């Protein structure tokens, strides 16, 4: 251990510090005694409301029942809103699928019409080529016409009749296609009317169910009020409390 210096304490300084600390403690105790709170004095007064105990209990029971009905009504409204949202989403998806199906049907009809038109054009081309070959193969000299005047008019009549038959067949097919398009349009319109009627009936059914729920709530409320009135009338004569006392 290295060297050290021992300093003797200053007794006078210590006594002064102790006296200052004691004086501060005495002053604190004196301040507490002077600022001690006095006794509390309150004016006597009557507590409670203007209703009787039976009325208070009845109002509490009514509030409890109303809160139950309100919770039930809110739960039903939430379920209805959720179902309506799901139904709207389903209807939206159905509408999208219906639109796609209609577009596909229109595309198929257009392709079918184009295919028929191409088939008719090809058939007409082949028929005209056949008739031209028949016309080319017939005799054209005056001597042949004078000696045998029968074959040319007969071939011309056959070709003319064949052309008329093709034209009638084409007209008939076009009429059938027009009738088919008209029938599909009528079916689509009927389907739209049926969907509109279904939506209207569903809306009316929902309104009726809402009115029935309100009517049931109203009837239950009236029955509860009547029961509470009877209970109050039975307990009123035997009540030892005054009407203005609430316990």
Automatic annotation (TrEMBL):
Keywords annotated in UniProt: Coiled coil
Domain of life: Eukaryota
Entry coiled-coil feature ranges: 71-121, 163-207
Protein name: ESIP1 protein
Lineage, top ranks: Eukaryota, Metazoa, Chordata, Craniata, Vertebrata
């Amino acid at each position: 251990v290295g060297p050290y210096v021992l300093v003797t304490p200053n007794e006078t300084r210590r006594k002064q510090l102790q006296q200052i600390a004691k004086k501060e403690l005495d002053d604190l105790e004196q301040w507490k005694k002077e600022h001690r709170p006095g006794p509390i004095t309150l004016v006597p007064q009557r507590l409670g409301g203007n209703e009787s105990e039976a009325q208070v209990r009845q109002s509490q029971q009514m509030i409890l029942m109303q809160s139950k009905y309100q919770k039930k009504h809110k739960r039903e409204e939430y379920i209805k809103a959720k179902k309506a949202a799901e139904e709207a989403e389903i209807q939206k998806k159905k509408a999208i699928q219906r639109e796609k199906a209609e577009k596909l049907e229109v595309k198929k009809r257009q392709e079918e019409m184009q295919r028929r038109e191409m088939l008719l054009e090809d058939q007409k081309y082949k028929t005209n080529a056949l008739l031209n070959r028949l016309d080319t193969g017939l005799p054209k000299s005056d001597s042949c016409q004078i000696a045998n005047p029968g074959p040319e008019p007969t071939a011309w009549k056959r070709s003319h009749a064949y052309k008329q038959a093709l034209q009638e067949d084409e007209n008939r097919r076009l009429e059938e296609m027009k009738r088919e398009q008209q029938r599909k349009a009528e079916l689509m319109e009927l389907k739209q009317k049926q969907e509109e009627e279904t939506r209207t009936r569903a809306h009316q059914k929902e309104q009726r169910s809402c009115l029935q729920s309100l009517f049931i709530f109203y009837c239950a409320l009236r029955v509860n009020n009547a029961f509470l009135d009877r209970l109050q009338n039975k307990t009123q004569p035997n009540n030892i409390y005054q009407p203005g006392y609430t316990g």
